[in-house]
Amino acid sequence: MLTTTVDGLWVLQVLSGIEVLAPELGLRPHLPSVETEQMALAHPVADELRAAGVITDAGGVDDAVLEWLTVLSRRDVALLVYAQTPAHETEPERVLLARFAQWWVVLERTGILVRLSSAGTATSEESAGVLINSQIEQLCGELKPASLRPVTLDTAELLASVHDRASLRAYLMDKRLDSDQISTLTLAADTDRSAQASVVAIQAGASDGPARSHIEQGAVTIIDTPQGRLVSEHVSRGGQSWMIVSPGSAGNIATAVQKMVRRLPAEDEWYSHRKVV
């Protein structure tokens, strides 16, 4: 693993000749016409990278780090994770888990701090699923699933009806949910008491999105409450969008993520699909 700053990553980006790395994490593109290798090598953080053996005096980048950067820049499919804890004074953690061919790499950003590492390789849907689930577990940690009878809600109706805690409670009571369901869902929506990690699937090289990327609209959200872990997923049926909230067991989370990535344009080949350049 490499731990550095946003500036350190910029130095590596310039020396690697990679123009676009991970805009999803708020990282701006490298501009070769005005940002030279000499500028990068003269940056104060370059001394730290040299001392760590990440770059040479001549500006060469460590082979492993260069491979990780290449996977990120040439990715075919990625999962973007946005994690927020109840401690609102801390910045949310943003993570990009990217696949190029069979190689997977993780780039994490919290404030100006970034961490870059290999996540391994996967050549089948099963092995890719195991890899993703392992990364989610590393990010979220372990927590017992909440005791909840699964709830299905109309997404459009929910968004139109709920504006605050009081309207959420009224909406849930109108759905004739039991007291335990109402209590658990109300707690899950309380960002002062519950942590959330939302996972979004992205396919590069698709023609139906900005910058030729398809962003799957149905995110999976892992919610850690004082009563245990929940998982929320969005599905479309009969022309309607639904939100399903279930106990956040490892199996339920894995199933929700698998259904999400299968909704990408590559469908069942999401783990091996190569973008057209």
Automatic annotation (TrEMBL):
<keyword id="KW-0143">Chaperone</keyword>
<dbReference type="InterPro" id="IPR025734">
    <property type="entry name" value="EspG"/>
</dbReference>
<keyword id="KW-0963">Cytoplasm</keyword>
<dbReference type="Pfam" id="PF14011">
    <property type="entry name" value="ESX-1_EspG"/>
</dbReference>
<protein>
    <submittedName>
        <fullName>ESX-2 secretion-associated protein EspG2</fullName>
    </submittedName>
</protein>
<dbReference type="GO" id="GO:0005737">
    <property type="term" value="C:cytoplasm"/>
</dbReference>
<comment type="similarity">
    <text>Belongs to the EspG family.</text>
</comment>
